[in-house]
Design goal:
alpha/beta; Spore Coat Polysaccharide Biosynthesis Protein SpsA, Chain A; 7-stranded mixed β-sheet
């Protein structure tokens, strides 16, 4: 274990990632990470076969369950492996693995429970790296809406590059969340609702042919689900429509 005294586990939610997996894995700073866990969501391109050739822990879904469901397995497995810090790194290479130490540090220092790798902290960086303009506009709009709901001042609420403290994963009832892309929005709003500390660090996105990408139609559905999640949080706080996604787990007193 690195000298920091905290066990850092990188989780990789994979789906059709054979073309980029090894390159992404090789770029992980191994001296800063104790273990890598890959969860393959029933890929058909040999992702699991390739993962077995790498020094990582593989979990595979016998049936495709969805991006959010994949993350649930990732975090459950990391907790079972006694992780203190969990970094979610997409195996498609869209986010830079070299940033992992900066993602981990605020949690290790006790300054944050959730660290977001933001593509918007550095002005102009998102578009300069190739982010499609419609995604840029949608991201900015949804982030503004979420900041209003959560009372935060985040530069980006829709990055897929995240690091979590063990405390957060034991506090937020993420197993109650959606199995699809709405999972990310639900989790960040849960973290805010439960008073967990959120910090951002600058990150770059990489856009190329093999990187997984959400199309316009899927993005529109995701946007609507994000707005609905924000509305549910507002109604929950006002006692109008309680949601179990924003209720603390009843077994918190038994946290290992």
């Amino acid at each position: 274990m690195p000298e920091r005294g905290k066990k850092v586990i990188v989780v990789m939610p994979a789906r059709q990632a054979a073309a980029t997996l090894k390159r992404t894995f090789d770029a992980i700073p191994k001296d800063e990470v104790d273990e890598v866990i890959l969860v393959d969501d029933s890929s058909t391109d040999g992702t699991a076969r390739l993962a077995r050739e790498l020094p990582l822990h593989l979990v595979w879904h016998p049936h495709q369950a969805g991006y959010g469901a994949n993350q649930k397995t990732c975090y459950m497995e990391a907790l079972q492996h006694d992780a203190d810090v969990v970094v979610m790194l997409h195996p498609d290479g869209q986010y830079e693995p070299e940033l992992i130490p900066r993602m981990v540090e605020p949690i290790v220092r006790g300054e944050a429970d959730l660290v977001l790798g933001s593509r918007f902290l550095e002005p102009g960086a998102a578009l300069a790296s190739g982010m499609p303009r419609w995604k840029y506009v949608a991201n900015r709009f949804l982030t503004i809406v979420e900041n209003r709901v959560m009372g935060t001042q985040l530069s980006e609420a829709h990055t897929g590059y995240r690091a979590y403290s063990r405390r957060l994963l034991l506090t937020v009832p993420f197993l109650r969340n959606s199995p699809d892309f709405a999972f990310d929005s639900e989790l960040i709003m849960q973290a805010s609702h439960f008073g967990l500390r959120i910090k951002e660090v600058p990150a770059r996105g990489r856009y190329f042919e093999d990187a997984s990408s959400v199309g316009f139609r899927s993005g529109a559905v995701y946007g609507l689900k994000t707005i609905w999640t924000g509305l549910r949080l507002v109604m929950h706080r006002r006692g109008l429509l309680p949601s179990w996604k924003f209720k603390p787990p009843t077994s918190q007193r038994q946290i290992p």
